[in-house]
Design a protein that fits this description.
Blueprint (H helix, E strand, L loop, with lengths): L1 H6 L3 H19 L6 H15 L15 E4 L2 E3 L2 E3 L2 E4 L5 E3 L4 E9 L3 E8 L2 E6 L4 E4 L5 E5 L4 E4 L3 E2 L4 E4 L10 E8 L2 E3 L1 H17 L2
Antiparallel strand pairs: 1-4, 2-3, 4-14, 5-13, 6-7, 6-12, 7-8, 8-14, 9-10, 10-11, 14-15
Bound molecules: zinc ion.
């Protein structure tokens, strides 16, 4: 099923849908205390670090509603990700082509997926479904209703549907907790979304 989903998405379609999602959702990101100047600086430092183009990146959730908690300090401790609310069952899209390095279940993240793309690691928490092992001991994530099965070691394309928004782990409502690491260090996903938006917007407006 996941292979069908992946092959059904042409790169161009992924890019378009990713951009449409970004356009629709970036407005509310400005509501956080990050100033524009700070975001521009962040984009430059991210691009300098990684020396990559964001054109391949996909916005990570369908039916996005709002950002419910930013990356950073909050009363309960540091929040190492960006919370993105979406209706229960909304599909989560893989941010960047990469390899599934770990799928797991714990009391906090709930059912979680970690994908490596070069020096980046992207993490998806609270998703619907569970983790199991097959007869040969290989670990996989399964969401039968959503038609998704992901194996550790599997390569997934940018924009592919990899899971659905749920409420596993510690959460009060359905949302994607999206975490990002670069070279093992946490990065604010909101800044990466802004960088993606700025670059994709420039590319389109030049036409
Ligand atoms: Zn969170």
């Amino acid at each position: 099923m996941i292979n069908q989903l992946i092959s059904g998405l042409t790169p161009k379609a992924q890019f378009r849908s990713g951009k449409a999602l970004l356009m629709a959702s970036l407005m509310s990101l400005g509501g956080f205390s990050l100033g524009w100047q700070k975001l521009v600086e962040a984009r430059e430092s991210i691009q300098a670090t990684s020396a990559l183009s964001w054109s391949e990146a996909s916005f990570p959730v369908e039916n996005f509603q709002e950002y419910t908690s930013p990356f950073g300090y909050r009363s309960s401790g540091f929040h190492y990700g960006l919370d993105m609310a979406a209706p229960q069952g909304s599909y989560i899209r893989n941010w960047w082509t990469g390899t599934v390095v770990e799928v797991w279940e714990d009391g906090r993240c709930g059912t979680g997926i970690a994908i490596d793309s070069g020096q980046w690691t992207h993490i998806y928490c609270h998703v619907q479904g569970s983790v199991a092992k097959d007869a040969s001991g290989r670990t996989y994530f399964i969401d039968r209703q959503g038609g998704i099965q992901l194996w550790e070691g599997q390569v997934v394309a940018s924009g592919a549907r990899i899971a659905r928004v749920g409420m596993t782990g510690r959460t009060t409502g359905p949302h994607l907790h999206w975490g990002l690491k670069y070279s093992g260090r946490w990065v604010d996903p909101g800044r990466v979304l802004m960088a993606m938006y700025n670059e994709q917007n420039q590319r389109y407006s030049r036409r």
